[in-house]
Write a structure and sequence with these properties.
alpha+beta, Jelly Rolls, three-stranded antiparallel β-sheet, 11 strands, about 30% helix, about 20% strand, globular, binds 2-oxoglutaric acid
Length: about 260
């Protein structure tokens, strides 16, 4: 969705469009709000990201396929800015779907480098009730924020919308995906992609000459437990957050160590 100037200025979709955006996630599995974050702020995020990312690449093997890195982000400025972690436009869609007591339990990034490949098509979560052919309402949503424009040549995310998030049965994902409708998510830097964590997707080859970073946060119903380590948040950082952001991160490791801090 392209936003109207008043929506960007108010940090709120017009009521009818908000209703549609929420329904789009519920039924289609995702929605994109284009170019929400101001370009100067995205540039600051990008610059800070690259500083820690290059260091991370030097000491880590690719961990999501060839030339492709998942990296947890340190919960520090500019990454933990409220425009990122407590974005009013994102939360206006996330909260009605996950409940006001939802939490954020994952603060990270995905970056294909030049020379990366297709990933297998996958969902980002296990089935909650394996073997039972039931579709559940949304219980976790990924918020992706691209730090560069996602173009055809730099490894955009490919998604299978329209029902794969409902995962009614175990399915032969790779074979089926080849026969099904998919989309490449082309979007400007600073957009908000909100996707049901269950929706099938994959990373695609980055054929450009620069990394293609994508911030990734997971918002979930408060009872969901995953294998991700709790986010380390320095106590002073937590205390400076707004009450609403504090609520989102209340179950994390408050007072715990930062990960992947930039070298001094
Ligand atoms: O390319 C991306 O941003 C996402 C990659 C991905 O889906 C994954 O590593 O699980």
């Amino acid at each position: 969705m392209k936003l109207f100037p008043d929506e960007l200025e108010n940090g709120a979709l017009r009521p009818e469009r908000l209703r549609l955006a929420i329904e789009k996630v519920r039924v289609d599995g995702y929605v994109v709000l284009e170019g929400v974050l101001p370009p100067d702020f995205v540039a600051e995020l990008h610059e800070n990201f690259l500083r820690i990312f290059h260091d991370y690449v030097r000491r880590t093997d690719p961990n999501r396929g060839k030339n492709r890195y998942q990296m947890h982000l340190p919960f520090m400025p500019p990454f933990c800015d409220e425009r990122v972690v407590n974005n009013p436009l994102a939360l206006s869609i996330i909260e009605p779907l996950l409940g006001e007591d939802c939490v954020c339990h994952y603060f990270a990034s995905d970056t294909p480098l030049p020379g990366s490949d297709f990933q297998p098509v996958h969902s980002d979560i296990h089935r909650l009730f394996p073997g039972m052919p039931i579709s559940l309402p949304p219980f976790a949503l990924v918020l992706n924020i691209p730090l560069v424009d996602f173009r055809e040549d730099n490894g955009p995310l490919q998604i299978w919308p329209g029902g794969t998030h409902l995962m009614p049965e175990d399915a032969p994902i790779q074979e089926l995906a080849e026969q099904m409708h998919s989309e490449f998510v082309l979007m400007p830097a600073g957009s908000l992609l909100i996707r049901d964590i269950r929706m099938w997707h994959r990373g695609t080859p980055n054929r450009s000459d620069a990394p293609r970073p994508n911030m990734a946060m997971i918002y979930a119903r408060h009872w969901l437990r995953t294998h991700y380590p709790p986010i380390g948040i320095p106590r002073e950082t937590y205390e400076r957050l707004s009450p609403r952001a504090q609520r989102l991160f209340r179950l994390e490791n408050i007072g715990g160590p930062l990960v992947n801090v930039p070298a001094a």
